[in-house]
C-alpha cells in the first residue's frame, strides 16, 4: 500500500488538465499536489511529455525540496513549489505554465489591471507581477529565490495568498495555487483568460479606467464573502 | 407528468450549446427558457459544471425571481433574467456569457460600432453598452438593478428589444435574448463574432467610419423586413 | 438520372468544407458549382444549417439568376454568383464567407497589401477591396450590383480574374472563385490567412513596406508561370 | 530491403506533426530527414496534401539537391534544405512552415527580440531575420541562395547553428532545424509560440526592454549547459 498514492493520482490528473485547457505547449508546465500530514508533495517529472505521464511517474519531494521517492528527476521548478508549500500552510496544489497571454503580461513586467467582473469574481486586486530578480539572486539558488520573489510580490502589496491565488513572475510566466490541485489548475485557466481580456480591453480603449471599488467588492463578496451566493 | 419538462429540456439543450460554441470557460455563463403560460422560466443551477448538467437539475423560477421548484440554487444572475422576462413580453430565452471579445468591449465601456453587414444582418444600431451602475445600486439589489440597467440602455437610445436582442453590461459582459432559447444562444455567438470583427477593424484602420445608412437598412430589411429574402 | 447530380454533389462537398476550415459561423457563407455546358450552377439553399445540407437540397439556378430546379430558396447572394458566372467564362465555382480577418479588412475598406511570399504564391497584387456602392445601387438590385462592383474592382486595377481569384467587398466580406468549387474554397482559406498575416505584420511594424517586385514575380511564377515547379 | 526506409519513415512522421501542431494550412510546409552516412535526405513531395502522404512518397535527394530516388517532384524548397545539410554537419532534420505569427515577423523583417524565459529556454539571442535578397539573387538560383542567406544571417551575428536552431527568412517565413527531424519540428512550434508571445508583449507594453543577460544565461544553461537540470 503506497501512502503517496493519493497525491500521485491527484498530481497526475491535474497535470493532464493543462493540455486539455490549452495552457501548455509540449512540457511547458507542471502541477504539484501536497499531503500536509506527510509534509510532502507529488510533482511532475522533468521533461516527460504529458502523453507519457502516469501516476507512478510522479516524484515525491518534501517542503525543503529534497526528493523522497521516485526514480525520475522532479520538475526543474520544484524548489519554487517547495518554498510556497513551506510558507503557505493552507495551499494543497501549485501550477506553473507558460500560457500565452499571461506570459506576455509577465514579459511586459506589468500587473494585470482589474478591468471587469470576470477578474473581480476571483480577487479584488490587480494581479501582481513580481519584478525580475537581481543578477546575484538569479545566479544563486534561482528556483528557490523565485519562491521568495512570489511571496514578496504579495506581501509588499498587502495581499493574502488565500485571496490572491495567482501571480506573474516578471520576464517568466504565471504561477497559481489553491487549496487543491484542481483549484490551482482552475486558477491557471482564469489568469490566462483575465490576461487575454485585459489585453483586448486596452487595445479597444487605451485609456480605460480600472473597475470601481463597489463593483469589485460586490462581485468578490457574492462569490467569496460571508453571504456568498455565486455560481452561474 | 412534469408540466415544466419542456422548458427544462430547452434550457438544458441551450446551456449545452455554450461550451460547444466556445462562449464559456468553466461555468461562466447561463441560459434560461421561459414558459409564458405558466409565468416561469427554467435556468441553470449555480456553479454546476456543464458536463454535470441534466434537464432535471434546471431550477424553475417565476418572473419575480422566486424559486418555484428545484433543489439546487438558481444562477446568481437569476433576478436579471426575471426582470427582463417580466417587462419584455415577447422573449422566450435569455443568455449571459463572459465571451472574450464581447466582454473586452464591455470592460472598455464602449458600444460596438456598426462597421459591416455581418452586424447589419442582425440589427441597425451600435450594440449598446449599459453604463456601470452607481455605488448605491451596486450595493443594493444588484442583479435586479442589472435588469433595469439593461432595459434603460435600450430605451434611452430608442431601441426595441425585439430588434436589438443583445447588450453589453459595462464592466461586466454581454446579455442576449430572443423569442426562443435557441435564438438567444445564436445571438450570444453573433455578438461575440461582431465584437471580434469590430476590434480587428479598428486595429486595421483606427479612423474607420460607421456603415452607411442605406447599407444598414438594406441588410437588415432583406433578413427581417416585410419582403425579407435572406438566408445564406 | 439527374443531369445536375454532379454539380449538386460538388456544391454540397464544397459547402461542407467551410465549417471544417473554420471559415463560417452558423450559415454565414455559401458555395456554388457551375456546369458550363448546361449554363447553370448549383448553390446552397438560403438559411439552411450546414449539418442539415445534402446534395438534393442544392438549388439549380441559371446565369441570369433564375431558379431552374429546387424547392428551397437559393442563397440571397445568388444574383452575385450569377453575374460572375455570366461574365467570367473560365470559373467553375464561387465562395462567399464572412471569415473573421478578411471581413475585418473589408469593414476597414482597405486592400490587403502584399507583404510576403504567402501572398505572392497566389497572386501579384494587393487583394482589392471594392468600394461600397452608392445609395441608389444599394437600394436597387443590390446583389446584382454587387457582382458588377466586384468585376469593376478588378478591371479598374488591370487585374485578370484568372490571376486574382479573391476580392473584398467593402463593408461586407470576401468573395473568391476558381476553375472548380474546390479551388474557390481553397482561395477562401487563403484570403483569410493572408488577411490575418497582413494584420499582424502591420501591428508588429506599422511602417512595413510592400514586397519587392522581384520576389513577387519569383514566387508567383514558380507556382503559376510557364516553368512552374512549386508545391511544398 | 530499402536502405532509405528509416529516413522516409522519419520524414513522413515529422511531416504529419505539422498539421497536428497547427503550423500549416494546406501544403504550406515541409520537413526533411537526413542520413549522414548515405549523404542524402528524404523530403516531402511537392504539393501533396498531408492526408495523402505516406513514407513511400518521400523523395530522396543528395546534399547537392539532386534527386536520387522517387517518382514525385521534391518540395520546391529542396535546394535550401540541401545547402544547409551540406554546410552544417550536425543537423539531421529541417522544417519550413508558413506558421502565422513567425511569418508575420518575417514579413515585418524584424528579428524576434528575446523578451522572456520561454525564449531563453531555447537560445540566448534575438531570433534572426535574414534580410531579403537582392534582385539578382532572387532571379537566379533562388532556393539555393535562400540557404546561403540563412547561413549568413547566423554567421554575421556570431551565432552557432547548434545553438540557434531557428531563423526567419525576411518577407518569407521561418526555417528550423535540429539533430533530428523531431527536434526540428519541435523548434518550429517553439518559434511560432515565441513569435506570438513577443508580438503580444509589445502590444501590452510598446517600450518593453529585452531580457537581462543573467536571466538569459540562467535559463539557457539550466537546460543546455554543462550542469543542465531542466525539464518541466
Any overview of this molecule?
- By secondary structure, chain A is of the alpha+beta class.
- Chain A has one domain: L-fuculose-1-phosphate Aldolase.
- Chain A has eight helices and eight strands; from the N terminus they run H-E-E-E-E-H-E-H-H-E-H-H-E-E-H-H.
- Chain A has an eight-stranded mixed sheet, with helices on both faces.
- In chain A, strand 3 (59-62) and strand 4 form a beta hairpin.
- The model of chain A has no long low-confidence stretch (mean pLDDT 96).
- Chains in contact: A-B, A-D, B-C, C-D.
- Chain C binds chain D through residues 115-118, 186, 189-190, 193, 196-198, 200-201, 203-205, 208, 211-212, 214-215, 218, 222, 229-232, and chain D through 25-30, 44-48, 73, 75-77, 96, 98, 100-101, 103-110, 132-133, 135, 138-139, 142, 171-173, 199, 202-203.
Amino acid at each position: 500500500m503506497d501512502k503517496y498514492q493519493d497525491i500521485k493520482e491527484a498530481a497526475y490528473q491535474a497535470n493532464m488538465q493543462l493540455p486539455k485547457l490549452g495552457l501548455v505547449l509540449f512540457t511547458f508546465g507542471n502541477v504539484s499536489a501536497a499531503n500536509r500530514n506527510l509534509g510532502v508533495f507529488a510533482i511532475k517529472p522533468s521533461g516527460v511529455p504529458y502523453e507519457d505521464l502516469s501516476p507512478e511517474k510522479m516524484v515525491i519531494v518534501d517542503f525543503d525540496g529534497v526528493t523522497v521517492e521516485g526514480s525520475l528527476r522532479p520538475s526543474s521548478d520544484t524548489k519554487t513549489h517547495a518554498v510556497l508549500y513551506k510558507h503557505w500552510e493552507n495551499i494543497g496544489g501549485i501550477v506553473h505554465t507558460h500560457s500565452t497571454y499571461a506570459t506576455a503580461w509577465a514579459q511586459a513586467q506589468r500587473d494585470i489591471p482589474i478591468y471587469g467582473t470576470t477578474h473581480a469574481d476571483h480577487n479584488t486586486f490587480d494581479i501582481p507581477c513580481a519584478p525580475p530578480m537581481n543578477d546575484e539572486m538569479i545566479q544563486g539558488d534561482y528556483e528557490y529565490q523565485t519562491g521568495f520573489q512570489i511571496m514578496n510580490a504579495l506581501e509588499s502589496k498587502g495581499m493574502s495568498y488565500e485571496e490572491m491565488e495567482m501571480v506573474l513572475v516578471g520576464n517568466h510566466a504565471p504561477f497559481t495555487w489553491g487549496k487543491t490541485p484542481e483549484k490551482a489548475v482552475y486558477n491557471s485557466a482564469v489568469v490566462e483568460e483575465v490576461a487575454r481580456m485585459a489585453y483586448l480591453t486596452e487595445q479597444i480603449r487605451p485609456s480605460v479606467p480600472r473597475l470601481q471599488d463597489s463593483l469589485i467588492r460586490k462581485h468578490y463578496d457574492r462569490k467569496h464573502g460571508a453571504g456568498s451566493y455565486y455560481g452561474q
